[in-house]
Specification:
The structure is a homodimer of 518-residue chains. With 518 residues, chain A is of the alpha/beta class. Chain A is 28% helix and 25% strand. Chain A contains 15 helices and 26 strands.
């Protein structure tokens, strides 16, 4: 029947297999009230206090008439503990919470705010500096986390401070249903307008439990957390996983390269999640004899390369892990610390079915690379829809698979391997060439530091494969060396027509090669 | 990997696992050109002739500029062979064909026609009598199958006869892709506006092959066909199945109770599909000694009762079969003539996954009744979307299952049992009562001819179970007899509060009890 065994944590905590994420918070407050849920700048918030603060925010929201048509509350906040009370407080009223990306500015920020349909916004003085000049069509109430900036009173808005909001008593709580929508997250999306992804409560509860259980996290764990709450990683990986594990979330406003290990050791952090660029920053510092003297046990790195990940693990004495997912469905794979095969991004989450499809939608076999698609095996663990864009939802859900924009492959034990973004695929003379598969071979050349392959249009309407390679400093690598090197190691149709050797390649802030600059 | 073995017929015919339904028609014309595809009123159309007629229609359509924005061609036709050439001819141009329900009239007919976006309509003089007074916003070209009615010329339309259309030479054919949309069918839908269901080519090819293979149909079979082409049964069960089997379709304009067996024996029909009412009509005729002297082998009856079906099979010397499906996905189960368990509607089609869900979306186990949901295992074998109603599509596809409006159960061998329509479920004091499960027990009372249970509102805002029973003529059945009879045989919460005994129950034309009249 393909019914996966449910995670045990949820049943132990709330006595049933499905729960809203607020039920988990209350259960933690009841069972482990004195334990620290959040650490921030030397201040500790117990589970009990966190529950109380969230209930007070809920009481405040209940006292206002702010539901409106979309029943959505928005926030535009830097990384800080108060974001959590605003998130949980909103959810406790049965409303949806939309965290807006703190980096956004101008028209895009206005558009996203207006698309939420929210009437109430949680923000702070620095956020107001960005919001105040925008045409916001729905917001009529603003709650400032810190202080009310001058001039706001004259705008005809209802204005409060969080301190005022917290004066409210906690109301009688009726928890949302596990299938109710909890969050609206704007997915950056690789093309076009950002999509507004609606995510149900049970996704956070069940996903948090799967992550906690698969990695054996418990109340002794302290999670180093700089992940913004407006990304799925902040809401699910860090916050919900911590809650389900009964662990502690150590919040820092942003990643600091120079102070990272001092922070880790100060709070005793055992776990952190990051992107590959964080690994590269830390690796680029000079080695020290005490590099491995830190409290970290696990570092979860999204889509890094095997060699990088291994070097980091070795130098800093940690276990590096990977998992695969996206705002629309997360976590799709689970880290498997004891048995993780090299280069794998984990074993398929038993709550999902993952398949690899060819261009026509046919399922490929083990080891074959194609588009990664997924389906849930249990209800309410993935996006309900793209808000306001049913057409995009239907397109993504063709044949009742969620079609990701990624290429990957599965092995016969159910481990997933991320290969490349689908859009990078080069179609030449009827063949599909996956750049990552060529690049992997090129990188084994001793004089190649890094490389990337792209398709460039030819005069006859087809494309050629153009490979950019960065040479190892001091070597005399030439394009023909690379062409000779790969010939016989890859299919003939994969040998690049053009090879450009450079001293270095451009990188994006997230640490990926910047194809647009090439 | 859950990749079902593909049906062999498609590979044998076209040398690949997927094909458009037009490729199948061409392959049949090449391989079995002289064999009869369609029999109608004493006239036989060979596969080769059918292909030629379809190509000529395609050539005609190509010669006009009628694609428009929706690339859809409509037809409003009685049951007749020409409907097939219009259907195949449209598909051969890469366009979508929308067959309109011949029974519709007035505003509803106008609304459906306009929703197709079609500019060209195939119809006949009797159809024009219905269409001519309607506000049709898109149609500018009309092709008459029979003759051009007087007065049409004055309307500023481009008007042709099919005879004129067939003067066109067959163009060079480029077949549509298997994933291209072939048909738009309006699903009657139990509530609200009819939905416009978009169905891909591969659904007809693959579904037709599954039906032909599961029942062992071949070129010796002759299908008695009165199913309208505007229903999925006409397009898929009868036409596509016949094509994939290489069999013969014997077309009759409508079901005739008095002439049915004469028709069957005259053409040598071995197979027919029908609804339960057809069984009842035929069974209500006086028995004759030669009842079983007919050429029929299989009768496929949708959603009949086991006892009815068995009595029919016995009397007329046929094997009765059932399958389950709907416009959006068909066939979801396959008849299994050798091993069909009593009351089952077949074994799950290996191309689909079927599950039974509870109210919260959790999967139920074998033998448990709940909502029937399905997913495809291979691409392009179910609806692409509801045209113009992405919201309804997203709602039906929640959690990436297609949510039917039916209750059913599965056994451990993968056979499906249809139980009831979901909307008939009675919710009383927190319990879900499925009327069909109560009715099945009541019907075992020797004095009960038939019965139906409904929920009726009570003063305190709950509902009571009200059972209507028809007594066997000559018996003195009372309501209390039924209450006593079921007590102990069903759960206490299923015992009806109100029982009304009548001499007979009202039925709909389709042979189901008419709840609206009760």
């Amino acid at each position: 029947m393909h019914r996966p065994d449910p995670p045990q944590t949820i049943a132990r905590l709330v006595g049933k297999p499905r729960a809203s994420i607020t039920e988990v918070l209350e259960a933690r407050a009841l069972a482990n009230g004195e334990r620290t849920f959040v650490l921030e700048a030397g201040r500790a918030f117990s589970y009990s206090e966190s529950w109380d603060l969230s209930c007070r925010v809920a009481g405040f929201l209940r006292s206002l008439d702010i539901q409106g048509q979309t029943n959505c509350v928005a926030s535009f906040l830097s990384k800080r503990s108060e974001g959590l009370w605003c998130w949980f407080g909103t959810l406790l009223t049965g409303a949806v919470h939309a965290c807006l990306n703190w980096e956004h500015r101008g028209d895009l920020l206005a558009d996203m705010t207006n698309r939420t349909g929210a009437r109430l916004m949680f923000t702070e003085a620095a956020g107001w500096a960005q919001l105040s000049g925008l045409k916001l069509t729905g917001i009529d109430t603003v709650v400032f986390i810190d202080s009310i900036p001058p001039g706001v009173a004259a705008l005809g808005l209802k204005v409060y401070t969080l301190e005022q909001a917290l004066q409210n008593d906690a109301p009688d709580i009726t928890h949302p249903e596990p299938g109710d929508v909890a969050s609206l997250i704007f997915s950056s999306g690789s093309t076009g307008r950002a999509k507004a992804v609606l995510l149900p409560h049970n996704m956070f509860t069940r996903g948090g439990a799967r992550l906690a259980e698969s990695q054996g996290l418990d109340e002794s764990d302290i999670i180093h957390d700089t992940s913004p709450l407006y990304h799925i990683a902040g809401q699910l990986h860090n916050t919900s996983m911590t809650l389900l594990a009964g662990a502690t979330l150590a919040i820092f406003p942003r990643f600091s390269r120079s102070r990272f290990f001092a922070q880790v050791n100060e709070v005793g952090a055992t776990y952190m999640g990051c992107f590959a660029n964080v690994l590269r920053y830390l690796m680029s510092d000079p080695e020290r004899s005490d590099d491995a003297y830190n409290t970290l046990r696990y570092v979860m790195v999204a889509q890094t390369r095997e060699a990088e990940s291994e070097a980091f693990a070795q130098r800093f004495g940690v276990t590096t892990l990977d998992s695969y997912g996206m705002t629309e469905g997360e976590p799709l794979t689970l880290p498997d610390p004891q048995n993780m095969p090299p280069a794998s991004c984990g074993i398929v989450n038993p709550d999902f079915e993952i398949a690899i499809l060819d261009d026509a939608g046919n399922r490929l076999g083990c080891g074959e690379s194609g588009r990664i698609v997924f389906r849930p095996r249990v209800p309410d663990i993935m996006m309900r829809a793209y808000a306001g864009d049913d057409q995009a939802t239907v397109k993504a859900w063709r044949d009742l698979w969620f079609h990701t924009q990624d290429i990957g492959k599965l092995d016969q034990d159910g481990y997933l391997y991320y290969v490349d973004r689908l859009k990078f695929t080069i179609r030449r003379k009827g063949e599909n060439i996956i750049p990552a598969e060529l690049e992997q071979v090129v990188r084994t050349h001793p004089a190649v530091e890094d490389c990337v392959a792209v398709g460039v249009p030819t005069d006859d309407g087809d494309v050629d494969i153009k490979l950019f390679a960065a040479r190892v400093p001091g070597t005399d690598l030439q394009g023909d060396d690379i062409r000779r090197f790969v010939t016989g190691k890859v299919a003939r149709f994969m040998v690049p027509q053009i090879v450009v050797v450079l001293d270095e390649l451009p990188y994006t802030p997230a640490g990926k090669i910047d194809r647009d600059k090439l």
